[in-house]
Amino acid sequence: MTDPTALPPPSGPPVALPPPPGMATGEQWQRLSVRMLFVHPVRIAGSLMIPLLIAFFGFGRRDEGFGPNLPFVAAAGLAVLAFGVLPWLTTYYRLTTSKIQVKRGLLNTTVLTAPLDRVRSVDLESSVLHRVLGLSKVSVGTGVDDTRIELDSLTVPQAQELQDFLRKRSRSAGEGRPPPELGEESAGDTTYPADSGRPEQDLARIDWSWLRYAPFSLSSLVIVAGIGGVLSQFMRDVPTEDVGVVQDGYEWFMSQSLVLLVAAGAVLVLIGWLLLSTLNYVVQWWNLRLTRMPEGTLRLSRGLFTTRSTTVEEAKIRGVVLSEAFVLRWVRGAELSTLSTGVGSGGQTKVLPPCPRTVAIDVGHTVLEEEGSLTMRLQPHGYYAWRRLHVQGQIGPVFFGLVSIVPTLLLDLPWWLPLAIWAVFAALAVPVAQEAYRNLGHGLTEEHVISGHGALMRQREVLERGGIIGWVVRQTIFQRRLGLATLVATTAAGPESVTIDDVPYDVALAVAREATPHLFADLP
């Protein structure tokens, strides 16, 4: 990726960068929007809805009706109102020339501070209630840790202006220009270029033909199974004995053959899996738009009920991860995430949902500003790596075979059952290990280091050479006997490391030297 300091100077007419309208400046503290008084009481009431309903219908005797419960419900309602108003009364924020601060708390006061030139992400989020009230929640991250400064709730214009202001303020500091001063709207050193000479570019927009990739997610199947278990427990308590038709239908269904029951269950699970995964995809990725902004950031906006706008500074993006679950590979789909410094979950920000693999690769290459990193053939790690993967794959089958000996002896089961269990799992482990070796490898380009690994979840991690701050070479006792090593590139982005597994030891050292020669300049 191109070093941002090496970019040509921004062009275009300078524009004044005043503080967002309505935002506090200087040493003045200011409260959030008064519309917030409608948000927190509703949110608290929603979280306590089930306990309140249980208390309302559960207390008292049936012959007394619901009258005795009304005082309790009224008291609970007043408590909800009080706790909903308290955050607005005890939360303040302010912008100074160098930092943004949020103060909250009544008895124990907490003040969170973020230097403006250390802001790495400014995300906007609006639930349905926020959108009805014209509000938005702003989350500011500095990349130091997971702590974020949250302003809930600002008006939508204030939130958008604050997002643009903080992003441009951080960008100007990163490029060495004098930062804009709050409260100074005139010319001078408080200006910021209208653009960097590069127009706004849409990298990806939602295409509803991508819905065909939604069901290929194992997490959806787990959710369906959990819902099915809850419904089965609930159905047992339904008094179907008093409904003749239901009882007769249930008895007929249970009297059918085992094959029919299994087939019916499989069909129900499949339908539930399709519906749930599709609905979840629509809710999460509605109106997806990934945009490269002129000032050098990626903006990701999405969401149906809760809309989210996430910004990632391109100067902090150190690479990408292309992920392909084994079920997603059946339909040639993939997901794409960025590796960034202090942004997203664990430094990773998913920028594309399950989508065509070609789309994920094209967007990844655009973000990396280098072609071929996600498609090039990786260097294999040789016979000993292949053997190690197959040996590791057989540990599980041996374990299950040994464990099955105990119930075989206690229950007087056939003597050959442990051997059969071992043989089945051992046979399944062979293609899994073979797939893991096929995906294992490494590569080098002019700008990036590439690592490939995984069997059920295949991943290709591409890390910018300039983002590598050190190397770690690890060897277990078994790897040393085979002349293999695990090469770890340490970085401040993503999970703070990118690993190349089971690479020959001499190759690992050669890769590290070639990728970052400056780190080895003083070594023999």
Task: Please describe what this structure looks like.
Helix content is 40%, strand content 26%. The protein has 524 residues and is an alpha+beta fold. The protein has 4 domains: 12-117 and 156-197, no CATH class; 210-285, no CATH class; 289-380 and 440-520, no CATH class; 383-438, no CATH class. The protein has a 7-stranded antiparallel β-sheet with strand order 8-7-6-13-12-11-10, with helices on both faces. A 6-stranded antiparallel β-sheet has the order 16-15-14-19-18-17. It has a 4-stranded antiparallel β-sheet with strand order 2-3-4-5. A hairpin with a 4-residue loop joins strand 11 and strand 12 (297-302). It is globular and about 75 Å long. Residues 1-17 and 176-195 have low confidence and may be disordered.
Task: Tell me the radius of gyration.
Answer: 29 Å
Q: Identify the strand order in the major beta sheet.
A: 8-7-6-13-12-11-10
Number of H- or I-type helical stretches: 16
User: What structural class do helix, strand and pairing data support?
Assistant: alpha+beta
Record the SSE blueprint:
Blueprint: E1 14-16, E2 30-31, H1 36-47, H2 49-58, H3 70-90, E3 91-95, E4 99-104, E5 110-115, E6 121-126, H4 128-133, E7 135-141, E8 148-155, H5 156-174, E9 191-193, E10 201-205, H6 218-236, H7 244-254, H8 258-285, E11 289-292, E12 297-302, E13 307-313, E14 317-325, H9 326-329, E15 333-340, E16 348-356, H10 357-368, H11 383-393, H12 395-403, H13 405-410, H14 417-439, E17 441-444, E18 448-453, E19 457-464, E20 468-474, H15 477-482, E21 484-491, E22 497-504, H16 505-515
Antiparallel strand pairs: 1-9, 2-3, 3-4, 4-5, 6-7, 6-13, 7-8, 10-11, 11-12, 12-13, 14-15, 14-19, 15-16, 17-18, 18-19, 20-21, 21-22
Helix pairs in contact: 1-3, 6-8, 11-14, 12-14
